[in-house]
Specification:
Elements: H1 2-5, H2 12-21, H3 31-34, H4 39-51, H5 53-63, H6 68-78, H7 89-100, H8 105-115, H9 119-126, H10 134-154
The chain binds fe (ii) ion.
């Protein structure tokens, strides 16, 4: 998100906390659903991590001393990061930051492990990531190219 905001005009005061907290809903999603091999249960888990987020985000930000109107903005961005195609730039930027993170080293290799894919298979899959902003598209391509070179070098 910080990288994106160097080039895009998003609302930093909303987007940094939103980026930090966007997946906090997962903390209340039953593990059984999170780890399910069943497609519809996995979708259910994804929906729940959005649905369960608002009260947790509100509580954390309240305790941190955030004002009500700021908390509302942050919650609105968090709940739009999946299953939506928002027109609002801030909402688009959280989705872009989330998809961009897929190309960064630590997440890329831990995702490969978690999904039982080889780095090369995951690379082929991630190449299709879509973005709202040109900045995210370019930064993602640059980062993913580093993964391609690593895979080439290691032959995995
Ligand atoms: Fe998420």
């Amino acid at each position: 998100m910080e990288l994106l905001l160097e080039h895009e005009k998003g609302d930093e005061k909303t987007l940094i906390p939103a980026a930090i907290l966007h997946d906090i809903g997962w903390s209340k999603v039953p593990l059984k659903l999170q780890k399910s091999n069943n497609e519809s249960e996995r979708i259910e888990a994804l929906k729940l991590h959005i649905k369960l987020a608002p009260p947790i985000v509100e509580e954390v930000l309240n305790e941190a001393g955030y004002k009500k109107d700021r908390i509302e903005k942050i919650v609105a961005v968090v709940v739009a990061h999946q299953f939506q195609k928002p027109k609002d730039l801030d909402k688009q930027l959280l989705i872009d930051a989330d998809s961009m993170a897929d190309a960064f080293k630590e997440q890329f290799y831990s995702d490969a492990k978690a999904y039982g894919k080889t780095p090369r298979e995951l690379y082929e899959f991630r190449k299709n990531n879509k973005f709202f902003t040109k900045t995210a598209k370019e930064l993602f391509a640059k980062e993913l190219e580093k993964r391609r070179k690593e895979i080439e070098k290691k032959g995995c």
